[in-house]
Amino acid sequence: MNRFKTEQIRKRYEARKGLSPEDIEIFDKQDSELNKICELARKIHIERFPEEYDFMLDSISDSNVKSMGKNPMNREYVERIKAKRTALGVSQLSQSGLPTSSDTMDFCIEEAKMMISTAE
């Protein structure tokens, strides 16, 4: 087991320490719902905002250009992304093409909550 999983198990144990079996059941249900929402939100985020993951496919030269504060993407793509983000009401990417806030993930979390609540 790696350190991350060990730490997760420890935190889970600490959060439930001293609770009654009924309280633990409620806590587990809330935790399960939150995990479901976060998992769906991540999927929505990847689909809706793939531009925030572009840096993962950067070449060395693209990475060097971004480190100088410039965006290596072509102008048409940048304009299309700006228009999409403006229409959705989320913040624009930085000059280098990287996200500057987490408002897109917040947007996706709200959408995931709505989708899950209407499905139930």
From TrEMBL:
<protein>
    <submittedName>
        <fullName>Uncharacterized protein</fullName>
    </submittedName>
</protein>
